């Protein structure tokens, strides 16, 4: 039986589902992946506690996890983005999706764990894990842990995306580390983004903002404006990428995912539901170690073919 010690992680990111056009993510590094398309400009950081994966020699952790805000969190996907077209507030979502069914490979107690997530952690989560192309999305406004509304772009001034490696606002906390400074986004606003929060009556605190945007009309009243920068951070203490286990707590035992893995990667997507267009995609893939390969551990393709057969759907957005 496969164990988590036999596998390591490979993380990539890009503007579409097409992984052939992705860049490797330097996990726990402060060098972001830059995504630029005709829809969005974005910078993405991925931080994973006790990281085992590629590139070889990657830091096992990040100073991010030593901050007062994140001592118990196990991973973070933080990103800044500037839309190139307005996006309706009730249509921008962030979450996970898959190209193939997972319904026959869900671990025992999954339904109970999902119920706890919906009830206590993210009431706005929507999806269908039993579909042929399963998904779990949450409205960005109510699901994301941190939302910081920035200034609208001024042609004579650099945007936040041009200030890589520096704390850009009072809400960005610099934390010394072996890899420079970790930038930790804080809830709030900068520049004329302060007026946007006031005008839309967006609460100052993260939890209150998430609750505020659980109301559909409040989401509909908000617009992610073209040319305005937004900073977000998604994190939690429940998914342990070192052991590939879900650790929800609330009386539930830890749920190991290795024994139920079907070869598909875990995919995080920022998506416009109105156009059904992805804006960026982060892919976290399991790869067997060299020693595990020698011992017969399956790679993702072999595992996928064993579970789903050799016929694979045409990859999305190949063009």
Q: Would you kindly provide a brief summary of this structure?
A:
By secondary structure, the protein is an alpha+beta fold. The protein has helices at residues 110-121, 140-143, 193-199, 206-212, 216-220, 290-294, 300-308; strands at residues 7-14, 23-24, 33-36, 40-48, 75-83, 87-88, 92-97, 126-128, 135-139, 146-152, 173-177, 180-184, 188-189, 223-224, 228-236, 239-240, 245-246, 255-256, 266-272, 277-288. 15% of the residues lie in helices and 32% in strands.
- Sequence of secondary-structure elements: EEEEEEEHEEHEEEEHHHEEEEEEEHH
Helix percentage range:
10-25%
State the domain count.
1
Determine Rg (CA atoms, Å). Answer: 19 Å
Helix and strand arrangement:
Layout: E1 7-14, E2 23-24, E3 33-36, E4 40-48, E5 75-83, E6 87-88, E7 92-97, H1 110-121, E8 126-128, E9 135-139, H2 140-143, E10 146-152, E11 173-177, E12 180-184, E13 188-189, H3 193-199, H4 206-212, H5 216-220, E14 223-224, E15 228-236, E16 239-240, E17 245-246, E18 255-256, E19 266-272, E20 277-288, H6 290-294, H7 300-308
Parallel strand pairs: 10-13
Antiparallel strand pairs: 1-2, 1-20, 3-4, 4-5, 5-15, 6-14, 7-9, 7-19, 8-9, 10-15, 11-12, 16-17, 17-18, 19-20
Give a verbal description of the structure.
The chain is an alpha+beta fold and 319 residues long. It has one domain. The chain is 15% helix and 32% strand. It contains 7 helices and 20 strands. The protein has a 7-stranded antiparallel sheet. A 6-stranded mixed sheet has the order 3-4-5-15-10-13, covered by helices on one side. A hairpin with a 6-residue loop joins strand 8 and strand 9. The longest helix is centred in the middle third of the chain and has 12 residues. The chain is globular. About 5% of the residues have low confidence.
